[in-house]
């Protein structure tokens, strides 16, 4: 009689307790088994628990390559059960690790393979067949569905139908419920959570003036350093331009070498705003002129006759103080007598309103394209393809798992509560369900894989040398750190480019993204042929889910909390002539009190991190068991610490620090 010593860790999960019978069976490479052993004697606790078992067998087994877990429910309890990992010590003293991080649901069994990562071509024939069965089973759970015409594909399941392994855990669910209650309370106008104890009289009325907004929200907003600066300087041209570099939407601005015909700015119009003695053509050639074009909004229908949108174009100039400032704004894509070009020399209210229209358009594009489409929805596509095409022992599956945590779950909730027909976004913005569909369709036509590769996107927009572009500076450092880490991991498992080509699972993963997730897009690769291509692809996946999402999400309260700075909607149409507006017209254009309250509560709630948030490079769930990968993770963390310190040191010298891409503030995944 020989004895195997087994340790079963349940992890800490709310609602993980169960009185069901949990059985464990050891399996060796010859498919010999130890027989079933009862794991629990009584009720499991939801707290982190380690259970030690002695499993006695008459004849020693070979190498333990699999562990089978089975759950038998009783009449009084049908709770699922969560297993974190299992360790087995053989009679000869060898150790085998089995990362699990899975839920056992109903009476189903789970087969867990030994933790060493393997490419499909390196597996035995029997395990290759097992991998195929595993993926077929997953493909039944993770089915593609087009939620709305033109959108990327998403999971075919509502929130309460999601596979248990991708649902929120108990802690995350509690925080989501609280945040949703916060948003709902903001909609009632009585308060914006316990933090925003503000009672607003006359909810559907316009604000009287700018001071009226400050009287209601000022005491709250001034607690935030960035927002305090925004409140003071929001109407100054330098602050308007700064946001295109380091605000919520730092991906729209691009260098302009030639003015488009649809934007007929003449040298005479702007000569007073350029360096003395310089001409517009000289500044264009010098690379000091930049443009932001919201053509993507052209043809998008407004939500109603009381909420308006347009597709403006803004010309910006890098002045002698290295500030990016606006020098011309056209509030449509069609020049003409009814679409004047507004200038800084126009009267105060004309110029103020023109800038508000640009900021309002930026709010819409940021929320639905830069944020929703290019981080949330894309990350769900990658996650879906991962579950459908990569076995749990595939090294890329293990690499990506921390970076898909809660993404499907948060998106499913967004589809029900935020971007649905009567969702929060339709309530606070100029775009309803039909408009969202049109805007996403427009964006999908121009969305490319290359735009997800951070260095390529910066280069394509001609933004390599513009000063004080901290989004670019910090993003390049984080991209490089992720790229080095991914490269180190890939080189451990792929000995050559041919190994990438022979990996049927990774090829199907990439194909699934392009052909199904992205609606058969020609702008995404359908295969990969080298290790270099694979490293770049996976770096883009991880960067999108972590850093890019952080950059465009966590500044929302900073930049949108002050309503005049980024109006979520405009209640009057854009002006078609100069000299026709006053402050009263502007206040009647801005969101009313009720809408302002909803916006404030929403952006505050949707930028809160979880109490036990897992930040970039923090991997408590160790899917990898091999020492070389563990060393690569340590190196990755060390590099991220260096980047954090560089950013911290720089920010100490700045009046307005940029911290959204500091690695210690970047969650691993899209989960907010």
From TrEMBL:
Domain of life: Eukaryota
Residues annotated as binding Fe cation: 371, 376, 549, 672
Binding site for Ca(2+): 40
InterPro entries in alphabetical order: LipOase (IPR000907), LipOase_C (IPR013819), LipOase_C_sf (IPR036226), LipOase_CS (IPR020834), LipOase_mml (IPR001885), PLAT/LH2_dom (IPR001024), PLAT/LH2_dom_sf (IPR036392)
Cofactor binding comment, as recorded: Binds 1 Fe cation per subunit.
Intracellular or extracellular location(s): Cytoplasm
Sequence similarity: Belongs to the lipoxygenase family.
Protein name per the record: Arachidonate 5-lipoxygenase
Origin species: Cyprinus carpio
